[in-house]
Structure formats: structure tokens, C-alpha cells
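Usage

Read records sequentially. Each one opens with the input sequence:
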Amino acid sequence: MDVNKINWLPVWEEHELSRSAREVVEQPADTILTPEPSSPQDTVEDALLPKEHKECPNNAERGLTNLIRVARPLLPAPRLRNILANAVEDPQVRNLVALLRSDGFKTQVQRLRATKQHQVLHDYICRRLKLDPNYYVEFVRVFLDVHISDPPTSKLPNRRPGVRGLLQDLRDALPRATLRDMYRRLYASDSELSSAVRLIRSSEFRRMLRDLRSLKEYRSLSDEVEKAGVPLRQLQQLVTNALGWTTVDMGAETVIWSV
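and closes with the structure output:
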């Protein structure tokens, strides 16, 4: 089956997200989620989440929310955490963490969040795609929380160096074939998921992404993380694999910086 592929680019997370993300798993169908209010101690990701307190209608048994709900327990979380814990002392990874925690970087993120283009995209994700950004970021955090504070459970003497090496190690740890089968099965049986995929690949959504990527605020953030050693395409591939998609479709690249 020729299944559509989507690329998602997360912002690296510093602390725990609000409990609302985890509650989706336990809520019945047609549950409405409301993002938590922000505080002066907001992290980079908190700053990017919508502040209008709009509810994101979603069905925990269908659509993108269900895709994430089903994919999450397939991830080898302990192994992924150990890979991350082993990487935090790597000089390049350590410098990246310092960048993401810096006041200057967080200020730039705030400026991006304040743009009309960012707010329009977030509303589309919430209303049309029926996906709460909190829930998506909580999923990504399972395999991309470079701020992990737990010590390694075992040493990895053969781990690859640098940010690129970390992403390769994480990708190799994913059960990619199992995740691909999971996605194909859901895509074939869930009309809400296939509808969301069509919307993501629509000209309307691509236009919103182009508008966001054209902003100087977005370009500045992208340049900074790339200079810090983050290969953005490889990062997209990792998130794509975790959701069961097979390849990066550069012709219809979908980059969601804000979640």
C-alpha cells in the first residue's frame, strides 16, 4: 500500500509537560483536552504552545491522537533513556543543551510564538487535525529528551559521538518494522487518520508551513540549532520513524517546529 509519509520536527524539551498530555490515554472517545496555563517559568516548549486556552477536540480512539497512543508503548523507552543518558556528557550534546536553555534562545522562541503565522498553524493543528500539541510533544519526549537527569543504566562504549551520532543510535533502537506495520494498519482502518494525513499534505497546510519557515524568527532558530550540530533532516527522519512512516518525502516536507 502506498501510504503517505509525514515529517515532524519537534523542539527539544527541557522539563516535564503538563499532565494533560498523559491523560489522553485514559480518557474515553470524544474527550476534550485543554492546554494548561503558562507560568513565568515556561520552558521553550511551553512558550510555543498556544496561550488562548482553546480546546482541541480529539478522539482518543481515532486519528492522530490514536496513532500516537498506539505507537508510544511500542517504543523501547528504557533503552532510549539509557542512550540519552550516555550522550549527555558528549561535548556537542552538552553545548546544544546549553543553547536550548539560554535566555537568548528562549526569547527567540517567544518571538516566533507571537507571530500570526505560528498562531494560525497551531490553531490548524488543534482544530483541523484534532491533535493537542501537548500530547504530541509528550510522545516525542520519550526519545528526544536530551535533558534527562537519570544516570545511565549501562555504559555504551560503542555509542556514536555528537548530536548526529545520538540521533543515529536512537533511530537504530526503534522497532521500525513494527511501527511501520502499526501505521499501515491504522491508516487502512481509521478514516479520521487518513483524513488528517490528507489535510497535512494539502496545499493549504503546506502554504502555512511555508509562511512560517519564511519568517526571520524561524530562520534564526533553525540556523542556531544547525550550527550547534543538529542535522534537521535526520531529526525529521527519527520522528518519522517513531510514528511508523518509512521515508522522508522531501518534495512535500512537513516541518512542525512549534510542537
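Summary fields computed downstream for this record:
- The chain has a mean pLDDT of 78.
- The chain has one domain: 20-252.
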